[in-house]
Each structure stands twice: as C-alpha cells, then as structure tokens.
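Entry 14. Structure prediction run on the chain below.
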Amino acid sequence: MVRNGERRDRRVRGFAARAGGWSVRHRWAAVGIWVLFVVLAMGLGSAAGRVDVEDSDQLSGETSQASRIVEDAHIDEPAGETVLVQAKDGRLRATAPEFKAAVADVVRAVEGTGAVTNVRSPYAARTQTVSKDGRTALVQFDMRGDPDTAADRVEPVLDAVKGVAGDHDALRIEEIGGASMNKTFDDAFGDDFQRAEFSAVPVALGILLIAFGALVAALLPVALAITAIMATMGLMGVVSHLQPMSETANSVMLLVGLAVGVDYCLFYLRREREERMKGHDPRTALRVAAATSGRAIIVSGVTVCVAMAGMMFTGLAEFQAMGLASLMVVAVAMVGSVTVLPALLSLLGERVEKGRIPFLHRSKRRNNGSGAQGESGSRFWQRVLAVVLARPAVSVVVAVGALLAVAAPALGMKTQNLTLDQEFGNSLPIVATYDRVNAAFPGGSDPAEVVVKADDIEAPAVRAAIADFRAQAVSSGASRGPVEVTVHAKENVALIDVPLVGGSDQDKAEKSLALLRDQVRPGTLGKVDGVEAPVTGQVAGSKDFNDQIVGSVVPVFVFVVVFAFLLMLLSFRSLTVAVTSIALNLLSVGAAYGILVAVFQNGWGASLVGAEGVGAIISWLPLFLFVILFGLSMDYHVFVVSRIKEARLQGRSNLDAIRHGVVTTAGVVTSAAVIMVAVFAIFGTLSMQSFKQMGVGLAAAVLIDATVIRGVLLPAVMALLGERNWYLPKWLRRMPDLSHDEAALPGPRPASDERPVRVLP
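Output returned:
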C-alpha cells in the first residue's frame, strides 16, 4: 500500500494533475495569476465596451432582411403609442359629445407633456381609428427622441392619460404601446428578475454551509464562481465585437456560471477533505484530488463547453450569444478549479475548517483519520443500492418505465411564442388593454410591416404596385384594413402596415401572414423589377423564429450528441460507457420535457406554480433546455463514473466498485444537485411564464438526473453489463488515452495478471 506522502515511481500525467501540482508548489503565484486574470479581463471588457445584438442580426430570412433595409437607410421608426377610448358599458358611441370631449382631453393632455409628436385624433380626416361598431376609438402619437430609450420618458405621458381617465368615469381610457409596455414590464419584473439573480448566491452559500459545516469551506466555491463570472463578464465585452452579446446571454451566463463554478469547486474540495479524513497528508490529499476530481472537472467542463457550442449552430444571434457566453464561463470556472483552487487549499490547510457550524457533521469529525467516512458514505444511498444491485434487471425496467411515462406527454408538445396574456396572464392591466385593442381592431396592436425597397420609390410602377398590394391585402382576406403606407422618398423606402386578420390568435394570424407572403406580394410588388419587399412584424418574427429553431434542431442535436459521445469514449476508453452516457442523458432530458408539457401545456398541477391557462411551451425553450441539460448532466455522470472506474483500477469487483463509486459520491452529488435545483427553482417563481418554464424545467431535470438516473439507473445498468462496461474494440485502442492516471490514485494497484486489469483498457 502506498503510504502518506510516498512518491510513485511513475510520472503523473494529465493536465489536471500537473496543474494542481504546480499550483501547490507555487501557491502565491497561482493565486496572483488568477486575481490578475480576473482584473485584466474586467478592465479590458470595460475599456472595449459591449456590443449588443442588433435587430437585423436576430434572425435570418425576411425579418433580418427587413431590419437591415431599415438600418441601412438610417430610418428611425418612432416609438408609437396608442390611447384606447372605449365606453365601459358598451352603449356610448364615438359620435356622442361626451366621447368626443374625452378624446379632445386626451389629445390636449399628451401634447401638453411635450414628450410626444404627430398626435392623431380618430376624428381627423383620413384617419380610420374608430372601430366598426363605433364604440371604440384610438388616439395615436409618437414619442420624441430615440425609440430605444422611449420607455425612460413615457411616464409623464402615462400620468397625463391617467388624469384624463379619472375625469371620465363612463369611459375606459388606457394607454398602450412599445414604450408603455416596456416601462410596465420593467417596473413589474425587472426588479423581480434581479432579485432572483442576486438571491441565488446566498441560497447556494446556505446549502454549502450545511454541506460542509464550515464557513471558509462554504465560501470557497461561491468565491470561485463569482470571480469566474466577473472575469467572463469582462471577456464578453471583448468578444462582443466579434459576436454581439445581449442581456439574456448575460443572465444565462450568470446561472450557468454559478451552477458549474460551485459544482466544480465542490467536487474538488470534497475529494480533498475525504483524502485527508483517510489520514493522508495535505500534499497527498491535494495530489489525489487533482488527479481524480480535477480530471473529472476537465472532462465534464469540456463536455459542457461542447454542449454550449451547439447553440452556435442555430443561426440565431441570441442563441449564439447565450452559447458563447455560457461556454466562456464554464471554461473559466473549469480552469480556476484546477489551478487556483488547489493553491488556495494548500495555503489554507486546516484553516479551511474555520467557522464550523455547531452540531453539523460531528460523526465525520470523530471519524477523522479512520477512513470510515470515506468508505461508508451516505447511508440512504447504501440502502437504495442494496436493493438496486440485488435486482438490477427489475431496477432498470422500473426506472426506465417511470422515466418514459414521465416523458410521454412530450410527444404532444406544442411550441409557440407566447402571447401577452399567456406570458403574463391577468397580472398586469396593460395585458387587458392589449386584448381590448385587438378585439376592436384585429391585428392593429401588432400589424405586419412590409418594408419596400426600390431604386426609385416614386416610380409609377412602384407606386401602382403598392396601391395594388394595399387593395389585395384586404380583398384576399389577409387584412380588414386600414392598410397604411409611409414613404421615405429620400431613402427610396416605403413602410406598409397591414393589420392581420386573427389579431392576437397566433395560428389565425400566421395564416393571414402566409396569404400576404405567398399570394398578395408575388402578384403585386413581386412583379416589379428591382423591388425588395420582406414582410416583418411581431407575427412574422415569431413565425421566422420558430421555423429557424425547428430547422436547427437536427444539426444542434447531432453536434452535441456526437461530440459528447467522442469525449466520453476518449475519457473512459469504453464504448459501453460512451453509449450509456448518451442514453441516460437523453432519458433525463425527455423526462424534463414531459414535466414541462404536463404542467404548462396540459395544466396538470399548473396552479401550484402559477401557470394556469398557458397551454403551450415557449418556442426557444426545448432546444435551450436540451443544450443546457445535456451539458450539466455530464457533471454528475463524469464524476460518478470516474469514481467507479477508479475503484476498478484499485482491484475492486464490478459490484463493489459500483457501490463504492455511487455511495462515496452521493454526498457531493446531492449537495451540488440541491444547489442547482434551489437556484433554478428561484427562477420558477417569477411571474413571466418563459422564465417560470425555464426554471421548472431545469430544476426538474437536475433533480431527476441526480436521483433516478445516477442513483438507480446508472448502477443498475452497470451491474447488468458487468465487465462489458469497459469494452473497447481493438481497432479503437490506438486512440489517445485520456483515461485515469493510475499512478496518482491512492491505494494498491491490482497485479498485472488479475482479471480486472485485463478487461480495462
């Protein structure tokens, strides 16, 4: 047996082991380099500034083409606002004196703010903003200044409209528009979302305090995660000049960075503590942790990075930004875990136990030096494994059957961009205003916009085609009008607003959009040479986004699965482990999909999470969840399988190695999973259904993965396969060897003539 501090005669290989050894020997240099890296990254990011995704970069196809034409022409479309004036009892008509007086008061009030321009009364000539039943009218105007910052200036206008509404009790007077909606949503949910982000850190710290029972040990993972996030935020600024970033990418990066940063540090720190509890000296404990947990972190981190890189294949700028930001934070956290963390642990020594929480982990401390805790691990999982390993075939059938049953609802998944009432329900009055405008003027709240670009927009042929398009848009049934045209003669661009039949009903509105794109446009504007006429707008953007998401599913799926398979094959030198890794992760993702559909689409238990009446899954979520979950699931899988293989290298039998690997990792996997579930569950409490769906989906998947998959299905499958777990065809044995470094493992090495070594590559 190798004694404490004894050197092996074989040279330790592997980046993680060598990096950990160097960091322990050069502790202050490793810490200084990390601090310098974080400071430099933040400084460079601040100096470079961040470039955000432009509208023209968001999508490919017609939506992007339309945005590019408008941007190239330097046309700043003003932020339009609308005031709905409507009789509360439905009896008062727009022709009534009281109704006209209210409209006049609205016009005077908004003009009096000085913040608006181009105010249009429903009674003005050529204005068609009185509903067909004569009971609703719209006062329309534009916000002055930059449309991107209109939400910051709209509050005085909203206050003026509220003042008029208070003077006319018989009428419903409400404002809606891009600026007012953004202002309302920012006020209602901006602080809510920020609180969720900031509360994730104390939640993670609280769970780590319970897991480690010591303040210093609990602070280390949080500190590593936070510094990795800070460095990545700086790097995002630099990289954004090549790949534009976004606020959404920043939020996803924070989530992923906190999750993997804490996990990686947790894996490393728990292994180092375990080795010290076995009686190893600090240097040996760190060497073992570097060669085992450090290597698992590298394999897991590279796999997660590959999964995140899958987002780059969507062609969607927002997804590409999220993927690149997530990839960077995982890479930074991974490098920090195998470099600065061992240096800090070496510097702290026994002081890592400072700030002990009374009454926690007394048994572990009493066993310090005996090795009992390291071998016994979790009693709960010991009892579970006793059943699983006694009847592995039954366990596989029950676990797979349960997961398939949970995943079954996913077969009927319906994805779409959620409408306002689906996204926010009745929580905001402005959502009801949106519905009232759409009911009185179908499609008027979000009309389709045809961006016409010609060599000469005033040419007779072009003007005739535009007039013909306006007429056929109504006669075809795609719109009930009014179809309004705004000509920018100097830029040779015309903007045609077409309210779509169907309004806020996405399915019906998409049929109207198809009529415009496939029939009306080719027969009118499409006949004029040199004319571009892409159709954009909210409905068109949603349709194009869904089409692009659907089209990117196969390449993203293939890329992530194939590269994850290759990484598992290289890391464990086992075809069986690579195949089962992919299969188990797909089961986990499928179960998460099933839960999402059951709750948010079918409404099973929807009241428990505040998701009544949603009826659909937001279109971007399935692909996003697949990439994120496939990457994060590898954390636990690599960690557990690495420990099982380590036990086999030490000469344990197959069943004993499985038992040892699962039980000794159960504590750290449980702690990591609880942190992830808690952090993701915070986002499941937000009012916006898109974030609620994301939080519930991620939390459910991680919970399933850490319990059913790693605690039941994985050991049962490996028990059934026996020595076939480590099968590697002869023609693959020449591939690079990225497997465990047996020289760095504690305990005796099996003799060369023992059967376990013959089956291990």
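The radius of gyration is 31 Å.
Filed with the rest of this week's runs.
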